[in-house]
Write a structure and sequence with these properties.
- It contains nine helices and 16 strands.
- It is an alpha+beta fold.
- The chain has two domains: about 160 residues, Chloramphenicol Acetyltransferase; about 200 residues, 2-Layer Sandwich (Chloramphenicol Acetyltransferase).
- The strands form four sheets. It has a six-stranded mixed beta sheet with strand order 9-16-15-13-10-11, with helices on both faces. It has a five-stranded mixed beta sheet with strand order 5-6-7-2-14, with no helix packed on it. It has a three-stranded antiparallel beta sheet with strand order 1-4-3, with no helix packed on it.
- The radius of gyration is 21 Å and the shape is globular.
- The mean pLDDT is about 95.
């Protein structure tokens, strides 16, 4: 992608290092649109937006024995346009041809976009390194690009990773148990990148009526203000803890909590990874015997425990681990327990309908992220969609 900005080098935050290497999965989507999108308008608007989102226009660069940075480059962020005689289909193995996947290794682009134009349909393939975005930031960028393509303004981001790098680093306990309690993630051996073709996402849809009823019943039973998300997370955990295979008797639930609202160094304009994990565990018999209300209360307390001090502690642990054992150590962190876990993530507060590049909102989408044991939640007008990737 042609760049009109000076070279910008952005050192990684402690969280960013978690998503380096071949085994780190990117955030990937296919978005289907009715009609043929204006590829030149999209290309021009992308070039404009990249000036405000330099990590997207970057290559990963090694800057020291244990440090990396995002460095803007004219060779970053390829935007490829493909013309096809038949309209592209989001379903089936052919959908992988609609995506140009990134690899988060040194010298490689951290974002790739592929636009496929059929006779009457268009598909935009999005692949963004998880090192530069969490779910919120992914949709922050895409909605800004769409707004620019429509000739509208968008909120300029803040992307300085130094805001999340602790100024002081006391001696930290780096044992597996301390890392799990302090960061919410598990040190459970090397991550193995799954074969994309072996994974199959399925979609569940929940109405606002159902979600609100679950939350109201749990609130009445516990005397706590249980959110619809607390109740939804438990509904998913109770189901997939028994449907999915797992080793041992204990089942784990992991939730990445967006801390932009509680960490004073940043706000909603922060573009990058701003999540701290929380993990709960129960035996299968406990999951059967505890009510939805009881488990929702436990989820609520765990999420509420993510505050400025616990976020800072997590950032210090990640930074201390990188300094002590190198960035490779963070590649052993698992956001979902690899053998008996479920990760439930609210990908974005921004609805997919906001991604209108001038010809209307997407008519459908498909998550392509190779992330087994994950349930990804996206808002709908009258509820939410939960895309689930089994082990």
């Amino acid at each position: 992608m042609r760049m009109s900005v000076a070279v910008i080098r952005t050192p990684l935050s402690p969280i960013d290092y978690t998503f380096l290497g071949e085994s780190a999965y990117p955030i990937e989507f296919l978005f289907k649109f009715q009609g043929r999108l204006d590829c030149e308008a999209m290309r021009r608007s992308l070039e404009r937006v990249l000036a405000d989102f330099p990590p997207v226009a970057s290559l990963l660069k090694k800057t020291g024995s244990s440090t990396f940075a995002f460095e803007t480059s004219p060779h970053a962020c390829p935007f490829t346009v493909v013309e096809t005689e038949a309209d592209p289909d989001l379903q089936g193995p052919a959908a992988y041809d609609l995506l140009d996947p990134v690899s988060t290794v040194a010298g490689q682009p951290l974002a790739r976009f592929e636009l496929t134009l059929g006779p009457v349909l268009s598909v935009l393939g999005v692949s963004l390194s998880h090192a530069i975005v969490d779910g919120y930031s992914c949709f922050y960028f895409l909605s800004a690009w769409a707004a620019a393509c429509r000739g509208e303004s968008y909120r300029s981001p803040v992307h300085e990773r130094s805001l999340l790098t602790p100024a002081d680093l006391p001696e930290m306990d780096l044992s597996e148990e301390a890392i799990r309690e302090g960061t919410g993630w598990s040190l459970a051996g090397e991550r193995n990148a799954p074969a994309r073709e072996s994974l199959c996402w399925t979609r569940l849809v929940f109405s606002n009526e159902t979600l609100k009823a679950d939350a109201a019943q749990a609130s009445d039973a516990t005397g706590m203000r249980i959110s619809v998300n607390d109740a939804l997370v438990v509904r998913l955990w109770k189901r997939f803890a028994f449907e999915w295979p797992g080793s041992g008797e204990r089942r784990f639930l992991s939730i990445p909590v967006d801390f932009r609202r509680v960490y004073p160094e940043i706000d909603l304009r922060y573009f990058g990874n701003a999540v701290r994990g929380v993990t709960l565990s129960r035996t299968k018999s406990e999951l059967e015997s505890e009510s939805l209300a009881e488990l929702a209360a436990a989820v609520h307390r765990a999420v509420a425990s993510v505050k400025a001090d616990t976020v800072l502690h997590s950032l210090r642990q990640l930074e201390a681990l990188r300094r002590a054992e190198g960035p490779e150590a963070l590649s052993r962190l698992h956001v979902a327990h690899p053998e008996a876990g479920l990760l439930v993530t609210n990908l974005s507060r921004v609805p997919v309908a906001r991604l209108d590049f001038g010809s209307g909102a997407p008519s459908d989408y498909r998550i392509m992220t190779p992330a087994p044991r994950t349930a990804a939640v996206l808002p709908l007008q009258d509820g939410c969609a939960v895309d689930v990737c089994p082990p």
